[in-house]
Amino acid sequence: MEKDTERQIIYGRNAVIEALRSEKEIDTVFIQKDLKIDGVSALAKERGAVVKIVGAEKITALSGTQKHGGVCAELCAAKYAELSDILEASEKSGKPPFIIIADEIADPHNLGAIIRTAEAAGADGVVIPKRRSAGLNSTVFKTSAGAAAWIKVARVSNLVDAIKTLKKNNIWVYGMEADGEPYDKVDFSGGTAIVVGSEGFGLSRLVRENCDVIVSLPMNGRVNSLNASVSAGILMYEIVKYRK
Fold first, then answer.
1. What is the pLDDT of residue 7?
2. pLDDT of res. 26
């Protein structure tokens, strides 16, 4: 069955399996932790959906019923693009590529805010990983103020491979970390991709190792970090200065 709510939830084993087999874009599949739902997890992973093992109360809250059969799925609020689509859009624009990479941003509000700022700043697209990341669910779509419908968002299996592809297309990749070079001392002209690390852990090790440059924002107060979406927004508009 499909629950007509803002979150676009489908629940029940058969309904979820049919949705996974169809052309519907599924963001996340929730499976009750004490049940074995044959075939659902494997099919979800095959389709590129995130699988979360949760308690029964979580599925009840999402579906609005206790008759959910231990499984529900959240539909994507917008369609994903391919990385090649973002590169093609950049080429057609006649400007150097400008791409945002979100490295395991788990908070949908943060991801939505990043997408909103990326669209406003004129970025060509946003790249997110399939694992350990928020997807294009309704919360992200709402927080982005609809920007998720206008900017291309690619969800890739391996961020490092995506970064290597960008480098082959003459795009410099800048990671954001506290120990990097001051952002106002860096030349962001030419093809540019910035990588925003996760809220609690920053850049993952392999992603950081594959960045060309690590940049930082000054922390002149008593706190030693900024919200991921705020940091991303500051750096995006620094890059905008080089694109005028």
1. 60
2. 84
Tokens for 118, please give them: 């990326």
Of residues 50, 196, 77, 185, the one with CA closest to residue 131:
50
pLDDT tens for each residue of 173-213: 999 998 889 999 999 999 999 999 887 788 999 999 999 99
Q: How many CB atoms lie within 10 A of CB 181?
A: 12
pLDDT in the model for residue 240: 94
pLDDT number for residue 55? 92
C-alpha pair distances (Å), 126 with each of 2, 15, 61, 118, 155: 29, 31, 30, 8, 9
* Whole-number pLDDT of residue 156: 92
- Rounded Cα–Cα distance for residues 142 and 150 (Å): 13
Q: What is the pLDDT of residue 132?
A: 80
Residues 6+ apart with CB under 8 A from 33: 53, 54, 55
3-state secondary structure the chain: CEECCCCCEEECHHHHHHHHHCCCCEEEEEEECCCCCCCHHHHHHHCCCEEEEECHHHHHHHHCCCCCCCEEEEECCCCCECHHHHHHHHHHHCCCCEEEEECCCCCHHHHHHHHHHHHHHCCCEEEEECCCCCCCCHHHHHHCCCHHHCCEEEEECCHHHHHHHHHHCCCEEEEEEEEEEEHHHCCCCCCEEEEECECCCECCHHHHHCCCEEEECCCCCCCCCCCHHHHHHHHHHHHHHHCC
Ranges in the chain, pLDDT < 50:
2-6
Question: What is the distance between the terminal CA atoms of the chain, rounded to a whole angstrom?
Answer: 50
